[in-house]
Protein 1
Amino acid sequence: MSLDAETIAFYNKEAPSYTKQYKDVAESERFQTFANRIRNGGDVLDLGCGAGNAARGFHAMGFQVTAFDGSEAMLEQIRKIAEITTICADFDALDLLDAFDGIWANFCLQHVPRADFPQVLDRVTNALRPDGWLLIGIHEGTETRRDKLGRLYCHHTEVDLRKALEQRGLHVHSVVFADSTGYDGTPFTGMTMVAQKLG
């Protein structure tokens, strides 16, 4: 199982307040730049979608959107939009092949236990169509820890993540770093890597 029970328990409990914290994600330049890479009207997966703020943004832009998360309470925040397909499951249940033109995995994969990360990355890659685009936002570094709220974090370095994507047939187009502060008040360096699956 590639979802940590304590992490999911946090998101189920905090869903309403957590939603309000990140409402402007679809207005960011990072989101807009990524969305503009995906073919018009294409199929997009908001992986580890949380309350679906990115999914709402993709939907508003005319994409066919699937929102995938392990927290039922988080998905309840987005189910009012009938056109968005919602899937509540562990990452291990992502068994779709060549299904998406874009996958937005924004700060969700750092919650995957390190030993399970290669298998989950295989599933993400398999779900992406040839020439499709992948964005991974993740905590940069080498440590494995729990934050003050009990959530599991497995950080990844640029070298390791780039190598893992390239081994799976993805070409890395950009890597951006930004210092930020987590929901628990802990500072971290966020890494956003954008890659395209080779056709």
Protein 2
Amino acid sequence: LQTEEATKMSLILPFFQLLGYNVFDPKQFVPEYTTAYGTKKDSRVDYAIMRKGTPVIFVEAKACNEPLDRHSSQLFQYFNATPSTKFGILTNGILYKFYTDLDKSNLMDETPFLEIDMLNIKDNQVQHIKRFSRSQFDAEAIFSTAAELKYISQFRTYFNSELSDPSDG
């Protein structure tokens, strides 16, 4: 898969179909959803997952051979321009980074609360993915889990740094 479009068709759309979304129903899944931020009035996020006519998840897709590190700012702009959006997913079809607005309401966090490598998926991550399925989607429950995952991650980072380089205190 050499292009973003090939990645979308072969990896990303099937992933969302497995989560129960009809990717051909614009009431559920809108490609090229138009957002407006700053002076740009016609910016398009790759996909918007809709609930009751409102976008709740934005998905920004890249080619599977494209590293995601430099693309979160693009998703950040779309997310922040649309207050109804509660979650952002940045993906290249292999790596999925899940974001929300834990630090400040309606502003996407800089770091994802969940990262999933589809080539090295862990059992406990499957439960987190299921929460994003169409049948189980509950924004408040996911938000609560996101907060928990964020703080667990921060604790692990702190604990590991103390093990490798203990502080004096």
